[in-house]
Write a structure and sequence with these properties.
266 residues, mainly beta, Immunoglobulin-like, 2 domains, eight-stranded mixed sheet, 1 helix, 19 strands, elongated
């Protein structure tokens, strides 16, 4: 009888230990890599793929070769008691941001432990440095939304739509568009104002915008239909509270674009 009680206690202890280890594993998994569309079929450790989980990649759509931009992966939907991710790129270099709860493995980013949502979403911020070779780069990501019930039952995950980043050789030497000519601003460097000249070769819609070195759009300087002809836009730094530094302006028309650099020197 006593032996049966002791055996029963040992059995209960083992079961509790296994349950505790299982819960700790699912609650503090250090993440995995190789499960994005770049080189994998998704996550097989957190339930099934579900459209209820929304994953997005956010950041600049274009960078100059060697330029570094700020990006993020945002996860919403699903149980989302905690969230995790795997991020990869076809070229270039991913970089960590301190305090984001992420780590690098084989050139990819994953979480160090599942992250707690804030206002219904989990966000992982990171940096990406474009390669020296021009051309399109694809950024991949997936996100898992877990319920921390001690196993993968009820957990869900999904891929993010792949993000294409246009890497140009430099801001000075893109292929010359046939729809327009984008001139160099003058004076450059400037303070407090400068003129951006451009010529529209064929009538159509154009868009001229100003960006900082991270690729963040600061202002739209011109947007709308233009007849063929020569144009110029005066940029006043005070209108946009610009600080000294390097900026880029980009002209787009009919699917074509050109980028040039300007420098504000206060």
């Amino acid at each position: 009888m006593l032996r049966s009680i002791v055996s029963g206690k040992r059995y209960i202890t083992v079961v509790l230990l296994i349950s505790a280890v299982s819960f700790m594993f699912y609650a503090s998994s250090a993440g995995v890599t190789g499960v994005t569309r770049k080189n994998g079929d998704g996550c097989n450790c957190h339930g099934g793929q579900s459209g209820a989980v929304q994953v997005s990649i956010n950041g600049p759509a274009s960078l100059a070769a060697g330029q570094t931009g700020d990006y993020s992966v945002v996860i919403t939907g699903g149980p989302l008691v905690r969230g995790g991710t795997n991020i990869a790129v076809s070229a270039g270099t991913l970089e960590l941001i301190a305090g984001e709860g992420t780590r690098l493995s084989n050139g990819e980013i994953t979480h160090t432990s599942p992250k707690t949502p804030v206002s219904g979403s989990v966000t992982f911020n990171f940096k990406f440095t474009a390669p020296a070779v021009p051309g399109p780069v694809t950024m991949f990501a997936n996100g898992n939304s877990v319920n921390l019930n001690g196993n993968n039952s009820g957990d869900q995950w999904n891929f993010a739509p792949d993000k294409t980043i246009d890497v140009i050789t430099s801001v000075e030497d893109e292929v010359k568009p046939v729809m327009f000519d984008l001139g160099q601003n003058y004076p450059n460097p400037f303070n407090p104002s400068t003129v951006i000249p451009f010529m529209v070769k064929q009538a159509g819609d154009i868009r001229l915008a100003l960006y900082d070195v991270t690729g963040r759009e600061i202002a739209v300087l011109a947007d709308g239909f233009r007849e063929a002809g020569d144009y110029s836009i005066r940029l006043n730094s005070g209108d946009y509270s610009l600080n000294s530094g390097v900026y880029f302006y980009k002209l787009q028309a009919e699917g074509q674009s050109a980028v040039k650099k300007l420098v504000l020197n206060k």
